[in-house]
Amino acid sequence: MALSGSDILNNPRLNKGTAFTHTERDALGLTGLLPPFVSTMEQQVQRALGNVRRQKSDIDKYMYLSSLQKRNERLFFRLLIDHIHELMPLVYTPTVGQACEEFAANFRETAGFYVSIEDRGNIDDVLSHWPEKEVKLIVVTDGERILGLGDQGANGMGIPIGKLALYCACAGVDPAHCMPIMLDVGTENESYLNDALYLGLRRRRARGEEYDSFIEEFIQAVVKRFPQALLQFEDFATDNAVALLERYRRRLLCFNDDIQGTAGVAVAGLLASTRLTGLKLSEQKFLFLGAGSASTGIGDLLCRVLQREGLSEDQARERVYFVNRKGLVVDRDGVDYGPHLAPFSKAMPEMSFGQALDAIKPQVLIGASGTPGVFTQDIIEFMAEHNRQPVIFALSNPTSKAECSAEDAYQWSGGRAIFASGSPFGPVHINGEIKVPGQGNNAYIFPGLGLGALSGGITSISDDLLICAAQTLADSVTDNELAHGCLYPPLQDIRQVSQAIAVAVAERAAQLGAVRSPLVPDFAERLRVSLYDPRY
User: Is 163 known to be catalytic?
Assistant: First the structure.
């Protein structure tokens, strides 16, 4: 039975609000339910943008946008696409961090899908309750390591919702094909366990066999229900992130954005930086502050690039150093760094971060520590003293966790730093120039990578495809943008960049034999015309 009247106005996918024509209103039983004036979509966008800007705080803007998405899906995405530079920081980082912390307190209406560890033995049936049957893209988290905020439990649902909004806006994935999932296995966050408003399970996190068997049942149910879907792991703690990726990357089409997406966007920035420094990556040394899955993911992919430039695997790893909470990662008796970090351990004396910096004298300093302000003036000045153009990446999210600000990096280096961050910083005026800091946002990589995987029928996502995506992104930066210090293209170009990445990744996968069937001859054009473009 066709929907009509208020049922249509209450369906976000069908609702056009005041844009329904008089003919449509008569046919659908909407006459009298709307003001008589018929708006264009452009007028609706301007009205919605004005409402966003009138909100008093970023979290209020986030809540308004979330409400709009639940009311009129096409208008929400049209607004986001047309004003991506202004609205991405509201829909995703940094505002999504606060949205997760306040998720339970601000809860108004359900969004996304929850699978609880108490659903064990019945997960396949639970997944059948999702209303969309053509699921092609799933973003899933267990909420243990949300951005730089730590364990957010069920409040972490804000992350997969935000990621999928970016897939639709930045790469043209149809929202009808998207499914955000929160795996609730408990939380170690005491404030949530004692919060009367918290909406997740009030128990400690499942660990070991209990956790592993739950994840295994979930994966089996996903493969059964949605066999062609791409599964993106998001914001799992390091040990689980690494283990799950290794366990499942050959069993289904999946990737971990924190490990592989972060690696891709960081390597893209490093590749772009070589056009400014004049140095090949294989001629440089890299010091990471922070040794979690994001950092080591960058390190692993970077080593693959160094090997392409002619280094052996051992030579590549010798150029990549890590500092964790105990200092430089070196060979220590009785210390097991785990498979993600152990290959980078050095036969060197134990050192603090400052001592390691002095001993190594790197050309590139990368922060993924979650420790705000740890790149102090002394550290930036040291990098500038030993490098004509020091490369400083402060990648921790949200903005409040950044290792240093763009202004500090430029001021303390005399304007010579090549800077990128995980969250946005505004332009900086220095030495009569305007520096435009690049935001190494994963949104430059994962939407295009996912689009390419889905449209190209890719069977697995390898390091080769990640490097292809990173190189495509780096090549999209113009000389003029580089001259202003920006290592990434402007956000308003992100849909075009995502399409370029999707095409490049699909074509590379086809060359490698990693697609289900050969690509059609006019693949790029067919991809372009198939993209979700929200209009009435």
Answer: yes
